[in-house]
């Protein structure tokens, strides 16, 4: 996968964050919900094959 090409993203859903597929916009099956924005961000970086850089 080319650097910068996102396949996954996170979105807020009430009081938690869901990991979603960009192609379908649907929540990724089997992926837990995250209650921290930073945890969701870290997981999206991992799924997209990017190097995680903390804020």
- Residues in helices, as a percent range: 10-25%
Low-confidence stretches: none
Give the DSSP E fraction (strand runs of 2 or more residues): 15-25%
Order of helices and strands: EEH
Question: Radius of gyration from the CA trace?
Answer: 11 Å
Largest sheet: 2 strands, antiparallel
Mean model confidence by pLDDT: 92
N/C terminus separation: 24 Å
What would you note in describing this structure?
It is a single chain. The protein has 55 residues and is an alpha+beta fold. It is built from one helix and two strands; from the N terminus they run ββα. The longest helix is centred in the last third of the chain and has 12 residues, at 37-48. It is globular, with a radius of gyration of 11 Å.
Secondary structure blueprint with pairings:
Elements: E1 8-13, E2 16-21, H1 37-48
Antiparallel strand pairs: 1-2
């Amino acid at each position: 996968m080319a650097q910068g090409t996102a396949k996954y993203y996170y979105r807020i859903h009430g009081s938690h964050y869901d990991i979603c597929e960009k192609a379908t916009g649907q929540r990724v099956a089997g992926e837990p919900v995250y209650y921290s924005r930073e945890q969701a961000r870290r997981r999206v970086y991992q799924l997209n094959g990017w190097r995680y850089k903390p804020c």
